[in-house]
Amino acid sequence: MDDAWALTEPAFDVAHAKAYEGLFTLGSGYLHVRGSLEEHLHDAPQNADYMRRPTNTTAEKFPEPKVKWGAFVPGVYGNHPLLNQEMVNLPYFLELTPYVDGEKLDMEASAVEAYRRTLHLDTAALTRSLRWQTRHGAAVAVRFERFISAARPHLCLQRITLESDRDITVELHAGIDTDVRTSGYDHLRDVMLTPLGENGVACNLVTDYGDAAHIVTRIYAGAAERAYVDAGRAARWIIQAPLTAGEPVEIEKRTAVATSQDAEAVNPIALLVESEALSYEALYAEHAAVWRARWEQTDVVIEGDAAAQLKLRAALYHLMRAHPGDSRCAIGPKGYAGDAYRGCYFWDTEIYMLPFFLYTDPARARMLTDFRIHTLPGAQANAARYGYEGAKYPWESDRAGNECCAQWQYADHEVHVTADVVYGMAHYARAAGDAGYLRGPAAPVILEAARYWMQRLNRRAGDQHFSLLGVMGPDEYAPLTNNNSYTNRMVVFALETASEVAAAAHEHEMFKQLAGALPIVGTEDGLVLQCEDFEAFAEPEFDAFWPDRDKPFAAQVSQERLYRTKALKQADVILLMMLFPHEFSAEEIRLAWDYYLPLTTHDSSLSAGVHAVVAARLGLMDEAVQFWQRSLDLDTDVTHGGASEGIHVAAAGLNWQIVVFGFGGVHTAMQADVLTLTPRLPANWTRLAFPFVWKGAPLYVDIRPGAVHIANRGSRPLDVRVGDRAATIPAGDAVTLESRHGSSST
Amino acid sequence: MDDAWALTEPAFDVAHAKAYEGLFTLGSGYLHVRGSLEEHLHDAPQNADYMRRPTNTTAEKFPEPKVKWGAFVPGVYGNHPLLNQEMVNLPYFLELTPYVDGEKLDMEASAVEAYRRTLHLDTAALTRSLRWQTRHGAAVAVRFERFISAARPHLCLQRITLESDRDITVELHAGIDTDVRTSGYDHLRDVMLTPLGENGVACNLVTDYGDAAHIVTRIYAGAAERAYVDAGRAARWIIQAPLTAGEPVEIEKRTAVATSQDAEAVNPIALLVESEALSYEALYAEHAAVWRARWEQTDVVIEGDAAAQLKLRAALYHLMRAHPGDSRCAIGPKGYAGDAYRGCYFWDTEIYMLPFFLYTDPARARMLTDFRIHTLPGAQANAARYGYEGAKYPWESDRAGNECCAQWQYADHEVHVTADVVYGMAHYARAAGDAGYLRGPAAPVILEAARYWMQRLNRRAGDQHFSLLGVMGPDEYAPLTNNNSYTNRMVVFALETASEVAAAAHEHEMFKQLAGALPIVGTEDGLVLQCEDFEAFAEPEFDAFWPDRDKPFAAQVSQERLYRTKALKQADVILLMMLFPHEFSAEEIRLAWDYYLPLTTHDSSLSAGVHAVVAARLGLMDEAVQFWQRSLDLDTDVTHGGASEGIHVAAAGLNWQIVVFGFGGVHTAMQADVLTLTPRLPANWTRLAFPFVWKGAPLYVDIRPGAVHIANRGSRPLDVRVGDRAATIPAGDAVTLESRHGSSST
User: Fold this and answer.
1) Could you tell me the pTM of the whole model?
2) For range A736-742, the mean pLDDT
3) Do A558 and B385 touch (CB under 8 A)?
4) Nearest-CA distance from B408 to chain A in Å?
């Protein structure tokens, strides 16, 4: 095991338990399980009821257990009485708890030594080993292993290996617990738990949304004595496993999950039985092979910063894991590693996560953009609810495109998502070289979105231009503003795209005219303003109102103050400039940077990454590296909560963008037609290398200070530019180009 | 009975049943009961559960029964799980239902003739008479009477008189039904219903807020046979009353209500027993005497428009009825005649209702301003919740000054209420000539409010003035604006008042400086703008988006559209000019009138009245009369829903202001130090006369076209001005002054 691939928990600390639980989430795209301890902790109830309300989410307080179970299948929903649809936390099926002489293994209470838990990023497997000194004097070596099979995505495999220094009997508890909640709410109905043969538990249930789930688990403990225990909303087998001193014993647990939302109906019992033809090792080997192939398509090599290398791989691991491999869903905002944001789909998909897939695995990227095609009817219904024709994509989408956001300021006013959707489709079409996509399958979305914008725009008396009024941009601390620059630019893009796609001449012309008539507002000095009258907001007075910089600003001031100050959750103009760098001069970008940075709280986890990309382009390498570290640490820094509530998977997508678009200096297909790189490596980096797919051509980019080596692994010649040098790389060949900015310092 | 005092329902129409139920609400200040039919209607369940949510209230849909019971004691609350505290609908105790041969009297199903129901405004009593042709052939004359005693405010008296054309037995059902809801929610706990002697029912309960209520009812039916029926959440006596042909029989029901919120603990059984010493007629006489005295203090005589005369009296009746006579409460927004707006206290008190009491019954006016003194601790806690020092009065207040509003845009941003409170106190002090009030009992409120404003104001870079940012004015269709003119002016007033009251020199100076530094924004043409950048809102396009002008605009467009257009719920600038007419030239007022009127939806029931006052002052008499009619009709026009959800009691207060300040042309004590009138009677009016108290001096003002007669009923000489004529009226004397604008036409 290479340390560059191993995320390790070196010792158990209950204060970090939830953070590791999120960070160590395993998943097959179809099925995801948080990295909970097989034996659980004491005093950490998972069935506490509380009612979340559609109030200020930043300031919300609710019970915080030491750990939080989570088992998710994308697209399986419950109906929250106040918050609309939400992804359901399914029953917990990891239980595999050893007892010796009545003593339960307990990370807080037991005498445990040599603890080590590792998420193996290369093979998407979790292992934990420890030595347990029981109260009755036995020293028991315990090793847990598990993975969710990438080859058989419905299947979770677990193994426990026990070895004692004396003859003892271990009692193992293993079953399914349905007494779980989703953000404090019980969505599970008609729960049935039944024994299955001599070693299994079958669980059937229906959510209050009407989705059915079938979970079957079996424990493989040879001839050991056992008993089935029906514990109400839980059921388990209790197994007596005799251990002979010095002789290791392995016991397996295999779980299969199926739901009514599966693309094809599967029988979980049949899946289990089928798997029984193969050993744990054989199943692991076929699983690892899938992941090996994934990493060949995606791995980014960083030399000169081993910690960043590992953290970036963690990000890519979670991006790949969380992709559902099914265009009827997208990637949940916490990467199916927690129930925060209720599992709904945001603009994160198009702007933050899509590029990673676009340039490493275009087919999976297309699933994400196709998701918006599938949910067009929902977006049309949503527009109609507001009295509009066309399609208004929901701020928080379920699998049907329903608006799930219960807070009107976002649902009504954060309208940019409908333009972001079109941007994502165009990005797919350009990056993948799939010219027919926009006029073909994506056209209804693009046209319906444009028809919505037509009605959403106003032309005020006295204005020569149109306006987008009453808008919240990505900076959610300015709820109702006029002509938000980011939103306007994205809408212009969406209208231009629609004009190109429109078959009807009058629509072609109308969309084109509107696209030309939306302003980007700025000052006379050339400062791009976030919105009209941005300067009419109050100064944020951070020194007075933000005493604890380790916690979000929004958690320390009232929403009322937030909404009247210039404090930014993230900087819309910097994001605009990240996406459209070629439309602004370096001076304009620097002016915006200097103006907005002191106002930006970075309360959004997406803020740091955007700033890192733009800082790298500005040559502000110290700042770029600081923001990059900050973005990388979001999930991995367990001391600050990390992934407790789930993976910041959009930030994970940004981490890839920072390294490839920022330090690698790759211009996206939205920014250049010819593959263009302007690398700017951090001072201590000696190498940055990654595979990359450009308009269907697979490449390998290998950047070292002063030189860029590009291998064309495709079947056609490829034009490239590095700085002001251009080359054409024949198919199967490679080229090395000098790079002035290959390394830089400030 | 004079028709000028009788509000009559000439025939029963179920479509108007709920409107009359609200309009015919009786009350003693302490206890209020909607004008429900004693026998109820069929298929009108009063126990339907539904969960109101803090969403767009205008667009809210919930079950609408044909009628809606309502029994309210001001200050008795329940805890709504989503909407915070709300006034509780107490058990229904009016039941007095006749059956003949198994046929229930039913206004929809029975053969009923000669129906007539009358609210006697002079005596605050409700009577209903009808002839009931039973299916078995009897003709039964039925007369219901009831009143809530103004002399014994805990007591509701009912009487039914029955007379048949043949010998029959009438079965009467009479009891208490606790299976009621408040806006679909059941707040009643620990309900106990027990028989009381041979003719009573005692009901005890506790609300989920912890308030206790004790209701005792007794039926006085002589020696008639009877049985007590326990029907779960209801209990009643069933009485067999033999009727001899041609001989009327009277049966009474008396109910006493007490709660844990009573100023002094009373025993409801003792109250009943005490009342039994007096006949119905004697109790009625003492009750009517109280009302006679009230009307002597308040009645406004209009000659020339009998319909307006009656409707205005209905307004004054409800204002007097709804005043709790207890400074621990104020007047609920629906006048304790419905549970809409959850019974919470708004700025309505200070701006719309207070003047009626100020100038007719200053002692009761002071109870309303003292309410804000009592709730200062709540306002301080509310400010602290936002991180402010001082006092921030809640947008929707319960008896303790807690913020009950569950929608952040109002609770956080509609801040003018805290200035309105100070304005109300100053208005009381000036109108009542109670100079010590502001520096005395009101001072803590005034100073704490100013300390809040100090922190709420911003000074933006580049501005010479301070600003109030992120504010919703009374026009609730513009949720977050800067320097709202109405709010700024009221805050200036509050700060000036605080400066006068401040004992500490630094506060005196600080408040004064701040007061001088808040702008009223306007255009170069002299148009006062509702707020900065008001012109940046979109045109409302009413022709396209407001197809049904009979229904509110807000019910026909999305809140999203509402929030980005110039459409006004009510016109803040016109309200500003109603309160501060002396600060604007006639041209400025006319300019504002012409600009805002086409933008104003009058969706607020308070809009028409404000426009009527300002129109009268502008001499726009046709418009003034139209708006006056519209305001008068709010409760009395049953065909448009009228008082279904309760009395528009703030509009009732405005109706008095229209007639006295608008047509009577009285300048308030906030506008003039000497009593000044500029009457402008509608063209068809031959007389307008009303009692009036000016700085402690009781007067009688009698306006006829061309002349104003003022009688000084006080003990000191009084200076008056009518137009440009001035006089001093000796104590006990009267004067008649010519009035140029005594009658006017446009």
Assistant:
1) 0.95
2) 79
3) yes
4) 8
